[in-house]
Amino acid sequence: MKYQVMTPEYAMKVAAAILENRPMSAAIGAHLEARIEREFTRRWNTLWGGRSLLHGRDAGADAVRLNGNDYLHLTGHPDIIGAQTAHLRRDADFVIQSGVFLLDNHPSRQLERELAAWIGHEDGLLCQSGYNANLGLLQAIADPQTPVFIDSLAHTSLWEGARRAGAPTHPFRHNDPAHLAKLLGQLGPGLVVVDSVYSTTGAVCPLEAIVDVAEQGASMVLVDESHSLGTHGPTGAGLTRDLGLTGRVHFVTASLAKAFAGRAGFMSLPTAMRNYVLSTSYPNMFSSCLLPHEIAGLSATLNVIRHANSARAALHHNTRWLREALSAAGYPIHQGTEQIIALEAGTEPDTMVLRDELEARGVFGAVFCAPATSRNRAMVRLTLHAGLAQAELDHVASVARAIAAVVQPWKWPVARRARANQSKQE
Question: Average pLDDT of the chain?
């Protein structure tokens, strides 16, 4: 991969392209070219062997695709499609503007209240994405005088929100309330930030213990429920409500691009804070509102999810079945328990081999690597959904057994670490 830097020779090429009416990109600066070479091109040419780690084969019609986030298998649901198309047909008179200008009679306001009531909170805000929800909320509730204590595996958007707020950020060991308590004791109260279900491993946060520690340290709590909203709790209202912690967790955020299979984000907050956040949260101020058909679709999705106990049961059954099958085949997936399964090969070259072996046999996951993971903790992430047939699960398990001798999961760094930790405990 090579980029053009402005030189006299390049200027002559540009002039010739203009005369011949040929398209040509503008030259980038030498500093940027050096940065791309240093941060990406070397990685592409060495670790990735000159091809993309993220993009492998095209998935055929008979492939088992475990690379999406539609956990309840709602894409194409007739109630949702019907609500969207009805609005597209009849609602041609609407204004595209920032969400800060929407009045209380706007349909998005009704959906915000419904979402907040569902999860047991007073009020909330919709925004363009879960990333924007985390960025915007943290910008509004943290500052240089508010330490942020964040789980080391929390969503990147939470880290970026703390950075944007200028808050001193203190990571604590993943799912380790004791380490969090130690930091709070040393540094004083602030904001504790966790995911309910972690997006790379499928690990569940020990939320009750985390909230206990935060309260003892006089700290607020923010829980990102992106991977548990819709999938956990009797009506899918999330882990916080399922555990009876709604009155003790100050803020909940979520991407509505997971179980909701849409395109939006949500944050809960007290009604008294609403106008404050609207006036200070840049992602809300400087992004357009959701479109009417999107709001209608999300409203219909909320109703479907509330009554989707059978889909949740199917999702949890599929999760238990495949986790047991993969563990029996020697894959170290002990890091998590939920519908996200991490096949953590470790290095990027080893992860590419794993991806290719799976895809050659019709199993497609999503590759996660730095910066989505720590360096040398790359993985193929499998995300399960409620619509998987037993034959598809059988195929995934069969493929995993067939390629085990090639990818040797028992030699992966995560497996070696687990054995070392077990030896220490013994």
Answer: 93
Which residues, other chains included, contact 162 with Cβ-Cβ below 8 Å and sequence gap of 6+?
A: 138, 142, 148, 150, 169, 193
Please state the pTM of the whole predicted model. 0.92
Q: How far apart are CA 281 and CA 158, in angstroms?
A: 14
Q: What is the pLDDT of residues 12-63, one digit of tens each?
A: 676 676 677 777 677 788 899 999 999 999 999 999 999 999 999 999 999 9
- Rg over alpha carbons for the chain, rounded to the nearest Å, is 24
C-alpha 355/C-alpha 270 separation (Å) is 45
**CA 269 to chain centroid:** 21
Which residues are 197's β-sheet partners? 204
Spatial distance between the Cα atoms of 354 and 345, rounded to a whole number of angstroms: 7
Cis before residue 206, ω within 30 degrees of 0?
A: no
Q: Give the full edge-to-edge strand order of the sheet including 366-368.
A: 340-346, 378-383, 366-368
Q: Which DSSP state fits 5?
A: B
Please report which helix (H) or strand (E) contains residue 366, including its range. strand 366-368
Q: What percent of the chain has pLDDT over 70?
A: 95
Q: Give CA–CA dist 340/196, Å, rounded.
A: 13
Residue with tokens 């990818």: 407
For residue 117, give both structure tokens.
């009531």
Across the strands, what pairs with 368? 379
Q: b vs e for 232-257, b when ≥16 Cβ sit within 10 Å of the residue's Cβ?
A: bbebbbbbbbbbebbeebbbbbbbbb
pLDDT per position as a tens digit, 310-332 = 999 999 999 999 999 999 999 99
Token pair listed for 139: 């910008």
DSSP three-state, residue 177: helix
User: CA–CA distance from 205 to each of 130, 337, 353 (Å)?
Assistant: 19, 11, 31
How far is Cα 27 from Cα 315, in angstroms, rounded to an integer? 50
The tokens of 106 are what? 């706007």
The total of other beta-carbon atoms located within 10 Å of residue 32's CB is 12
Among 17, 277, 275, 242, smallest CA distance to 142 is for 277
Q: What is the 3-state secondary structure (H, E, C) of 93-144?
A: CCCCCEHHHCCCCCHHHHHHHHHHHHHCCCEEEEECCHHHHHHHHHHHHCCC
- Nearest CA among 352, 356, 348, 341 for reference residue 397: 341
